[in-house]
User: Which sequence fits this backbone?
């Protein structure tokens, strides 16, 4: 497989690629093998031994799972590949979503013994939503039960994508021989990895090549149905060359019409070099990807066709690091336009701060190396930024544009935390704020009356790890309460309100009036939007400064943290600013904020009076794989938990898969009960399924 040439001026051949999968499919092991095959690391790190380079956090190595996305850069042929290893556990789906925003392509890893699994479907929806071309890798082909052709069928059936086999294993699976080689169906050559980690061409028995020839013919037929050039070659009665098949395969992959399926075994390394060929040959370079969508920073309205300013970058991750007793932030960014070098000044519209870049760093898991700068299309870390958080846009000073703001789902579970000693109060507060800055899906709110903080997240594991990090990374070990479900309140009818503040400040009379409207968001029940004019007509309708608008937006979000029914945060609602006036010719930011809060309170009071505010609770989608002989007990227990069954299917001669939805509060501690019901033989997965009306007050 050959690497396509870059467009003039596009720089060296860069690929920004994410590796994503269901938990335990082997994506971190695959990344470790890639580091070894490309010469980035001398030894292959192992997840089970806690020696993996990419899972470098203490909690990751202890639990054997990926918690936070890790980035690295490797060279393969003429390509420089920025590789992002994403989490596989459902509690960290938001982390995967953030990474998708800065990538140009994806590698979907499947366990060849299971095919598409529940979390595979989740990450695929994220890949599809971002419009990313993708290739797939059927891993663990050395294991009994591995079925590469079955993986292709499951991709087509369960993901709705046309998978095409481009590689085929020799041995492994349910055959009588060990996995010994991988056949490249495009060029009809067999490869294996020797003990030194080098790829070697090998001869395989004729029967294997005959099977491969049949699969290649099927591959060519699928491509020819969608590619006129290849179709004409077949009509001419000749077998297309490997180069012709690759050209067609790349065209259709970039058009997202097919998903090439590679195969192999990451642990011994079989098939990994061929997969790297596919990354370099089939996935797009930055200049081939669609330009990012931009929005007006004040109103949030899309701005199609607007020339993008330089520089322009998106922060997709913040990590706090302690070196020589000093804590500093590394800000991971994707550069979309222009060049960023030390000394570059970048405007952050959310925080209203101009940041100056101290250092530009190349990332390799927990390690960094200084570089002179980063050009468009690159992924790097920036040092010296102090007011930038995950999801922020960094742009040229004076620009009124921003990239798509992050959509953070509503947390589903929370715990109360408090310091063990008074002297730990400030360190605990600072640590919680830092965790929330790094991970926006963690929500932290303080109850000043009780002296406690409510830490909310996307599941039990998410919160457990956040609490563990408080001790391991920040040296704070708080008291932690039992898990509690994160209820929410939502406006279901439109309501309006107006707030007026008039007072004397420093001898001058100031006046501010804000009108706003509450609108329900039925299709995004977990979202709280605050939108507005941002700037209004001059004269009677005062022009709000960007700073005043940011203050109003922050004040409204803070007030919405306590709903009008029983005090749960507001969601599923858009708060739209409709007018902002001043009879005194102007007002300080604080006065505008007070007027906006008064208007929101009046609108919420009207909504409650009209019966238009509803209490919501989180529901979860579940998938339970259970042995047949205990399935009736498992199903009965789920029914007792108010579960809504969607599907019960046989997944083998003695097993069933039960899927559906249930209220989260009924599933707390479910793993213990399921273990008891099945004698430890059943497994389950949970994923957020949105919010639904609650029969209780929570």
Assistant:
């Amino acid at each position: 497989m050959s690497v396509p040439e870059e467009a003039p001026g596009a720089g060296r051949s860069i690929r920004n690629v994410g590796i994503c999968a269901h938990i335990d499919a082997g994506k971190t092991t695959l990344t470790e093998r890639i580091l070894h095959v490309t010469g980035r690391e001398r030894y292959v790190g192992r997840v089970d031994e806690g020696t993996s380079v990419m899972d470098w956090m203490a909690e990751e190595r202890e639990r054997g799972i990926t918690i936070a996305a890790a980035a690295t850069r490797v060279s393969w042929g003429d390509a420089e590949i920025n590789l992002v290893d994403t989490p596989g556990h459902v509690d960290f789906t938001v982390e995967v979503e953030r990474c998708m925003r800065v990538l140009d392509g994806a590698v979907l890893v499947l366990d060849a013994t299971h095919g598409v699994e529940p979390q595979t479907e989740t990450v695929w929806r994220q890949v599809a939503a971002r419009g990313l071309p993708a290739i797939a890798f059927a891993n663990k082909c050395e294991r009994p039960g591995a079925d590469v052709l079955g993986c292709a069928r499951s991709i087509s059936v369960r993901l709705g994508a046309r998978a095409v086999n481009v590689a085929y294993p020799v041995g492994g699976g349910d055959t009588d021989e060990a996995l010994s080689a991988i056949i490249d169906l495009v060029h009809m050559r067999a490869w294996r990895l020797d003990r030194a980690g080098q790829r070697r061409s090998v001869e395989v028995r004729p029967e294997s090549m005959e099977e491969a020839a049949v699969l290649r013919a099927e591959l060519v037929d699928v491509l020819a149905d969608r590619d006129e050039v290849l179709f004409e070659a077949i009509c001419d009665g000749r077998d297309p060359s490997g180069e012709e098949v690759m050209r067609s395969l790349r065209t259709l992959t970039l058009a997202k019409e097919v998903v090439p399926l590679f195969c192999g075994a990451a642990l011994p390394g079989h098939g990994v070099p061929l997969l790297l060929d596919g990354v370099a040959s089939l996935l797009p370079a930055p200049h081939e990807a669609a330009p990012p969508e931009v929005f007006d920073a004040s109103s949030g309205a899309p701005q199609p066709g607007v020339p993008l300013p330089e520089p322009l970058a998106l922060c997709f991750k913040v990590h706090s690091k302690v070196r020589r007793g000093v804590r500093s932030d590394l800000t991971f960014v994707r550069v979309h336009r222009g060049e960023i070098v030390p000394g570059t000044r970048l405007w952050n519209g959310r925080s209203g701060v101009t940041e100056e870049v101290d250092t530009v760093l190349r990332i390799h898991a927990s390690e960094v190396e200084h570089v002179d700068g980063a050009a468009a299309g690159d992924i790097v870390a920036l040092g010296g930024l102090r007011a930038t958080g995950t999801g922020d846009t960094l742009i040229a000073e004076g620009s009124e544009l921003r990239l798509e703001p992050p959509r953070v789902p509503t947390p589903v579970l929370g715990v109360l935390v408090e310091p063990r000693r008074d002297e730990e109060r400030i360190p605990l507060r600072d640590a919680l704020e830092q965790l929330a800055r790094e991970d926006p899906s963690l929500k932290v709110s303080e109850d000043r009356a009780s002296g406690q903080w409510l830490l909310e997240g996307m599941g039990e594991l998410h919160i457990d790890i956040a609490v563990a990090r408080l001790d391991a990374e920040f040296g704070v070990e708080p008291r932690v309460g039992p898990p509690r479900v994160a209820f929410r309140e939502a406006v279901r009818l439109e309501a309006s309100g107006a707030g007026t503040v008039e007072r004397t400040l420093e001898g001058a009379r100031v006046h501010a009036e804000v009108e706003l409207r509450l609108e329900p968001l039925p299709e995004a029940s977990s979202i709280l939007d605050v939108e507005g004019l941002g700037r209004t007509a001059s004269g009677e309708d005062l022009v709000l400064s960007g700073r005043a608008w940011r203050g109003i937006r922050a004040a409204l979000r803070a007030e919405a943290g306590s709903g009008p029914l029983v005090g749960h945060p507001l969601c599923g609602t858009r708060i739209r600013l409709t007018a902002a006036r001043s009879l005194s010719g102007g007002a300080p930011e604080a006065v505008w904020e007070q007027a906006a809060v008064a208007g929101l309170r009046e609108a919420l009071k009207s909504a409650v009076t009209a019966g238009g505010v509803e209490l919501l609770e989180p529901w979860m989608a579940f998938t339970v794989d259970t042995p047949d002989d205990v399935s009736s007990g498992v199903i009965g227990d789920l029914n007792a938990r108010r579960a809504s069954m969607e599907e019960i299917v046989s997944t083998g001669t003695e097993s069933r898969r039960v899927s559906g939805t249930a209220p989260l509060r009924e599933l707390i501690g479910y793993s213990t009960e399921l273990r008891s019901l099945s004698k430890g033989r059943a497994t389950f997965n949970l994923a957020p399924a949105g919010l639904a009306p609650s029969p209780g007050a929570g």
